[in-house]
Structures are given as C-alpha cells and as structure tokens.
Amino acid sequence: MITKRKEILAVYEQGPEAVVTLVTTLYDIIAEQQKIIELQAARITELEERVKKLEDQLKKNSRNSSKPPSTDVFVHEKPNPQSRRKKSGKKQGGQKGHPGTTLRMVDDPDEIVLHEVHKCSNCESLLETLETND
C-alpha cells in the first residue's frame, strides 16, 4: 500500500486514471477489512456468550442449584465444627484424688445365671456338651 507523500504525488502526476485506480484499490482494501472486522465482532460476541455460560456453570454448586454435592469442584470444604465449651485446664479422665467406683466381683453372688450355647453362631452346627471337672 502506498503511504508516503512522494508516492501519492507520483500517482497524482500520472493523471486522473492513476488516482482513480489508487482510490478504487484503497476502497477494496477497506471493504475487505470491514468484512474481517464484522466477522471478528461476530466471533467476539459468540465467545463472550460462551464465557458467560461457562462462568455461570462454575458459579453453580450443590447449594444454589439442584446439582449433587459430589459435583462440587471449587467449593471450599466446611470448617470442622468447634466446641462452644470452655476449657477448664484439667486433664481428660479421672482427676487425682477422686475415688473411683468400679463394680467388683464378689465371693458370694446373689444369683448365678448360666447361658448355654447349643449351636455355633457361624456355621449353625450343633455343639457337643463337654463336662468339666470343677
């Protein structure tokens, strides 16, 4: 394309037909560029719509749509629940000096209950009774 002043003046000195040819060529170039601009504008609009749809998909999660929680990708996990109880400073479990209460075995119980097993709980086969010498 002719851009320098000297080149334009050279075309002007060649006569009116050379100027008409130059202007016609420039109009053709402008028309081609206009077509490219229109195609690019249409493509930009199409891509903007696609980006909007994808951003909307990213914004959806199980809390604001009917999607299951397993599809949540960019959702931050919930923080672990924290107790509202105040710490006392004591160790866990029984404290020193506290008398414990445990159910002790006695030599003479009030009642004895025998629970006999006749079948194996795994294979359901009958068990033979063995007599033991006490």
TrEMBL record:
It comes from the Archaea. Pfam families: DUF6444. Residues 33-102 form the DUF6444 domain. Residues 56-109 are annotated as: Disordered. This is IS66 family transposase. It comes from Methanococcoides seepicolus.
